[in-house]
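Supplementary Text 2. Reproducibility record for the structural model of the 431-residue chain.

All settings were left at their defaults, and a single model was retained for analysis rather than an ensemble. We include the record here because the model underlies the residue-level annotations in Supplementary Table 4.
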Amino acid sequence: MLDMKGMREQIDLYKQKLQSRGVATEVVDELVALDEKRRELIQTSETLKQRRNDVSSTIGEKKRAGESAEDAIAEMQEVAAEIRGLDEKLAEIEERLQEQLSWLPNLPHESVPVGEDEEDNVEVKRWGDEFIPDFSDFPNGEPKAHWDLGKDLDILDFSRGAKVASSRFLYYKQLGARLERALYNYMLDKHVDENGYREMIPPYLVNDQAMYGTGQFPKFTEDVFQVDKHPLTMISTAEIPLTNFYAEEIIEEELPVYLTALSPSFRSEAGSAGRDTRGLIRLHQFNKVEMVKFSEPETSYDELEKMLVNAEEILQELKLPYRVLTLCTGDMGFSAAKTYDIEVWIPAQETYREISSCSNCEDFQARRAKIRYRNEEGNPKLVHTLNGSGLAVGRTVAAILENYQQPDGSVKIPDVLVPYMGGKTVIKEEK
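Retained model, structure tokens:
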């Protein structure tokens, strides 16, 4: 959530930055006006409360002196009624103010390019061009799509997933299931043993406050699965329970704190409009290894760069070609101040597809979730939160199947995964 005090003191800056994220300047004006009314009511209420205290003292003095206090009592009752009326108005305005603030996205960092959509994202780097496969000796000179490979190798079953659940669900079978498991175990080991993250197994269902704390609610209620007759939501990312681990707390341990977890992610994909209806790219349920950091404000952008490296190293060790983009203001997530997207090469589509997002949310989530730390002077301050995919497992499976497919229809196992595959080096069709 944005800082109302900052908005009041730097209204032009907030207008400029929020406009770059599609928020009309009139919205900021309305909020500032509402905040001004709130402050006026508070001041008036405090003045009346002081008056009430003075009259109460007068009543006591008159009673002790044996004098009539009826006039003073009548005055105090009148003042008390006025205070109650003001407090009701104040509560109404504060509710409106919080409601409107909850719909506003984070301010973009000064380094974020201004733009409307993904066309305005800026490519930062590419890696692994030498690993882009050549399919000239393949039948028809073309690669198979991962869903066809999965069917031919009998390791992905989308039809039975649809039968049991609905479209965009699947069964991983045999070495397909083993490959998925190998990947997330490898990712977790990498983050824990080499990168200093603490492994967690979080709840997969969370309450509305947790969804609000990380910025999913109220804006994205249509994109989630909620449990009927229970005030719980199935998580769309482990970012939600990991970030809320310290909700309404002061973090007393030394910063930065690194957390990682494997979890299923559940997404209704309400806004996908029929995109990626086949394969592993856009599912209603998928596994993802998440990275979350809590950092002092002064070092949070250094921590963002480190997190990006942590995600990149996974793809480098898998020898999967990728590129890194800085997202523009119009394409960034709601809570992010700056985001890097990593896109992996998908040969059958002849394009790069997102496999990780690494974001610095600064104090946006911390203000909503009330997460603080103590600075050098011992004073509580809002922490900076960061999150990143390390990686989306299903999309990594898709990338491996397509980039490691062989002319005979088999799929080679990346070297780094062989120990996690029980020594198996290839997935091939069983005769």
